[in-house]
Amino acid sequence: MFVSINWLKNYVDIDQISPEDLAERITKTGIEVDGLERFANKVNNVVVGYVEACEKHPNADKLNLCQVNVGEETLQIICGAPNIAKGQKVAVAKPGAVLPGNFKIKKAKLRGVESNGMICSLQELGVEEKFVPKEFANGIFVFPEDAETGTDVTELLNLDDIIIELDLTPNRSDALSMLGVAYEVAAILDVPIRLPHTNYHAAEEKTEDHVSVKVEASEQNPYYGAFLVKDVKVGTSPLWMRNYLMAAGIRPINNVVDITNYVLLEYGQPLHAFDYDKFGSTEVVVRMANEGETIVTLDDQERTLSSEHLVITNGKEPVALAGVMGGADTEVSDQTTSVLLEAAYFDGKTVRKASKEFDLRSEASTRFEKGVDPNRVRKAGEKACLLLEKYAGATVLAGISEFDQLEYSEKTVTIWTSTINARLGTDISNEEIADILRKLHFNFEQDDETFTVYAPTRRQDIVIFEDMLEEVARIYGYDNLPFTLPSGGSQAGGLTKQQELKRHVKRFLEGAGLSETVTYSLTTKDRATQLISPEVAKDLVSTVSLAMPMSEEHSTLRLSLLPEMLASVAYNLARKQSNVAYYELGSIFISKEEKVSQQPEEKLRLAGALTGEWLTHPWQQEKKSVDFFVVKGILEALFDSLSVKVNFVQEKVDGMHPGRTACLYIGDRAIGFAGQIHPQVQKEYDLKDTFVFDIDFDYILEVHENEPSFAGIPRYPSVTRDIALVVDETVQAGAIQATIAEAGGELVKDIQVFDVYQGEHLTEGKKSIAFSLFYQDPSRTLTDEEVEASYQAILAAVADQHQAELRG
Amino acid sequence: MKDQLQALEKEALQKVEDASSLKELQDVRVAYLGKKGPITEVLKGMGKLSKEERPVIGELANKVRGQVAEAIDSKKAGIEAAELEKQLAEETIDVTLPGRPIPTGGPHLLTSIVEEIEDLFIGMGFEVREGPEVETDYYNFEALNLPKDHPARDMQDTFYITDEILMRTHTSPVQARTMNMIKGERSVKMICPGKVYRRDTDDATHSHQFTQIEGLYVDKNVRMSDLKGVLDRFAKQMFGEDREIRLRPSFFPFTEPSVEMDISCKVCNGEGCSVCKRTGWIEILGAGMVHPRVLKMAGYDPEEYSGFAFGMGPDRIAMLKYGVDDIRHFYTNDIRFLKQYHQA
Ligand SMILES: [Zn+2]
């Protein structure tokens, strides 16, 4: 809502406060002021001039040589505007004037002829093009005849007006009118309000003899009033009205349209003017549209209606889409002489539905949607009649043809001073509350600390105690509330064990060299199906997509964090950032239904992607690229820090390198995978060798032991034995290790691979793997005999199960 | 014999003096102090001496031995020190050469901000709760006093999956779920951080996915001044002790009264500058007293219980605090951007 300060001055005295201060007060007390702008700028030395003569320039076809009386003198001015004519009153920038854009007006010679000033268009005076009335859009502005020659144009054109732009919240639709804003300002500044009168001179002739009103959908249209005005002369509306409309952001059209717009802004009540002679009947019938019925609206679009749309008809066919837009057939034109003026109350939801469906949001529909003031509907119609009478020479017929089932009564809300203070933490007195209600112009009855408040109908938002609590609080001033801290609820806050664990994992991975990413949950349909961990894919039925995505790019919920993360990696590679190590902890969305009817299951996943160099030391010529074991090392250390035992099992995963991928297991439970992206997929994403992991983090949280118990520092020495075994190259270290662990018995506390060798001195197809075995008993020193026994048992077992031989 | 010993002593001491390595010194030791050394030889001839002379010569011989041994030891220490010095000199490195880099990582800026805010509210007795990102229409809207057709639903244009399932537009549904779980049996003091989604076209200030932290405190006798006090503490800890806050009226369907909280602009100290659009204030969050209908729907008696709620956007706070000029930076994951915020 754009509020012209000059217009507002008609209702409240605001001269004692600067526009800046007023804006600040409005913001702090009720409605956020989004901006404070000058409508245009004050100009000096620009006055109304009378064009006494206008002839063609002797040396230029498109220029005119004008003699313009500017009061104390007559200036010769050359003007190129196509619409200049003798007898016009125009805006003349005299020599010495400075126009917006620091354009200085000087005496000049144009094609050999002297020109002593400039005749201005509104745009040249700083008015935004979109507000300039169409007839002046491509030329100079022409004043009404009664504009006094020599008068300064700044005031006449309202150029120095200041516009307050209000950012209205949905509850404050009362401020969608100048009167509503006036009430707000009156309450803030504690100044009286002046309401406009609406008394027109009714003719003898009665409206009801020419128009009847019938409403068949009273729920959607509880009030419909039809006024009839005759002898209308469609023309230009008065300059002050055009000024106000432009200041409010509406382009003036003609007096009839301007008047309905003016009243809409003043009262917040949309009106509609039908050309009575084109109405097609003498009866207004309001009803729900028939299925498939059509109407051509003012914008010349044919609209197909349904039974959910409310229409105004002439008893036969629709002439307007109620509250949204009129029909083209009954539009007021230059030839119109009789106007049927509609002042109605349309149900917000009904209007909203239609305006949304046809994408026809307008000043009118917005107000109906939010609910207009029942007590202003008829008044607004009367005000429009008054203005038509005054500025369109109209004769207003007596009475209103109306249908009226509207609820006019004020809502009653009871408030108690003690409750208000208890809720706000304040110490407001009964007197202060009474004073606040008076400032707001709310009627009330007071019995000690009990106030029965009659919320005015313009304030549709006030229904319950809390609404009044807000009114009292804001007028009292939020700045005046004390600062306190909650007295009750001494509960200790904190993170849950799982939340702490999440932080632990983040810090751990960050310490290990990974940077956290945040990627989008919504991805493309393609990406949503890529690199899904096998245990997720197993239960999956379909992807979950948005009903109406903004773009394909963000249309489908992810089933893996990896695709978007890989896209981020590629983004970095494309910018010459070749070493990237990322992790993310985020949700994936699994639906087990063909067609979604329930929320998908959300699973927390821990994923990562690493590419490029891992360890480098440039001047020592050291370079170590990321490989599978870098990733595995990080994960092993992480799992170790979480005290969970995870096995890496060589398996194939879609989209992954078949020989360099492991699935991860806790016991029998698959919890994700780690490995290298398949070269083909790498190519698709524009990646170099990239290693990733993707882990079911929810399950980690589930199995994680709460508190690590203190195991004590070993008091007895450990015994280390090394064992080098020669096996077929296909035998996996993990398998041998498992055998060693089983055969070695309880005394074997740790087994570490310390060498893998293949090549010279070994038969082709064989490899040697060397393990260190750590023996320990927490309660005593081990004897050589028991270690030897275990060692021999291990040798026998690996020989049996893996045909392993001791390397000689 | 006496002269012989004295000559030997002189000779040996000269050799010790001349020795320039541990090896030479060892040779001297063997030559003069060894079992076949000249001193031993001299002593072998002691039998020829008189009873009176024997102890004198014996003493002298031991003295000579002692002197020589001492000289050797002291020379040895000197040589060792010199050799160590030489070795250390050879081991000298250029300490100005760069160290071996270790891979470094760090949290995402949004995580840092979220955790900072979490810790701050935890310090005021709040717990942290999380909930699903794909929500039901009921919890996202209806339970928060936003029935279908409510005009305020326009304020948060929604990604629907079906008519009843949607991407949550705020984290308030977590509050509704938590209250519903507790069923009005006790107080609730919680914050809920998380990802939220709105039907917005991504640009410098809009993102279809962003982060939110909402807070809720419901108890007996919760006052609006408590909200003001808690928010003031938050603002001062988050943005600096010298920040002021102000509340001004706003509208949210789930709170009444509703307010927006501004903090005084750090750039201009409230004087007005381009950062604060000349107002001296910067909008940080929305808040209010929990709407009685929301309390009732969650099983709380609004006559007995009252509460406050607030909601803020870590993306926006991060942008303000660190001067990030484009919200898309948070989701592009340019390593050069991420690394800038890894320092503590
Ligand atoms: Zn500032």
TrEMBL record, chain A:
The keyword rRNA-binding does not apply. GO terms for biological process: phenylalanyl-tRNA aminoacylation. It is an enzyme of class 6 (ligase). Its EC number is 6.1.1.20. Its cofactor is Mg(2+). GO terms for cellular component: phenylalanine-tRNA ligase complex. Mg(2+) binds at D461, D467, E470, E471. The gene is pheT. GO terms for molecular function: ATP binding; catalytic activity, acting on a protein; magnesium ion binding; phenylalanine-tRNA ligase activity; transferase activity; tRNA binding. This is Phenylalanine--tRNA ligase beta subunit. It holds the Pfam family tRNA_synthFbeta. Residues 408-483 form the B5 domain. InterPro entries: aa-tRNA-synth_II/BPL/LPL, B3/B4_tRNA-bd, DNA-bd_dom_put_sf, Fdx_antiC-bd, Fdx_antiC-bd_sf, NA-bd_OB-fold, Phe-tRNA-ligase_IIc_bsu, Phe-tRNA-ligase_IIc_bsu_bact. Tetramer of two alpha and two beta subunits. The keyword Cell membrane does not apply. SMART domains: B3_4, B5, FDX-ACB. Binds 2 magnesium ions per tetramer. Belongs to the phenylalanyl-tRNA synthetase beta subunit family. Type 1 subfamily. Residues 40-154 form the TRNA-binding domain. Transmembrane segments: none annotated. The lineage of its organism: Bacteria, Bacillati, Bacillota, Bacilli, Bacillales. NCBIfam families: pheT_bact, YtpR. It comes from Gracilibacillus kekensis. It catalyses: tRNA(Phe) + L-phenylalanine + ATP = L-phenylalanyl-tRNA(Phe) + AMP + diphosphate + H(+). Residues 714-807 form the FDX-ACB domain. It is found in: Cytoplasm.
TrEMBL record, chain B:
Binds 2 magnesium ions per tetramer. This is Phenylalanine--tRNA ligase alpha subunit. Its cofactor is Mg(2+). It is an enzyme of class 6 (ligase). Mg(2+) binds at E256. GO terms for molecular function: ATP binding; catalytic activity, acting on a protein; magnesium ion binding; phenylalanine-tRNA ligase activity; transferase activity; tRNA binding. SUPFAM superfamilies: Class II aaRS and biotin synthetases, tRNA-binding arm. It is found in: Cytoplasm. Its EC number is 6.1.1.20. Tetramer of two alpha and two beta subunits. Residues 109-320 form the Aminoacyl-transfer RNA synthetases class-II family profile domain. It catalyses: tRNA(Phe) + L-phenylalanine + ATP = L-phenylalanyl-tRNA(Phe) + AMP + diphosphate + H(+). GO terms for biological process: phenylalanyl-tRNA aminoacylation. NCBIfam families: pheS. InterPro entries: aa-tRNA-synth_II (IPR006195), aa-tRNA-synth_II/BPL/LPL (IPR045864), Phe-tRNA-synth_IIc_asu (IPR004529), Phe-tRNA_ligase_II_N (IPR004188), Phe_tRNA_ligase_alpha1_bac (IPR022911), Phenylalanyl-tRNA_Synthase (IPR002319), tRNA-bd_arm (IPR010978). It comes from Gracilibacillus kekensis. Gene3D superfamilies: Bira Bifunctional Protein, Domain 2. Its main location: cytoplasm. Belongs to the class-II aminoacyl-tRNA synthetase family. Phe-tRNA synthetase alpha subunit type 1 subfamily. Keywords: Aminoacyl-tRNA synthetase, ATP-binding, Cytoplasm, Ligase, Magnesium, Metal-binding, Nucleotide-binding, Protein biosynthesis. It holds the Pfam family tRNA-synt_2d. CDD domains: PheRS_alpha_core (cd00496).
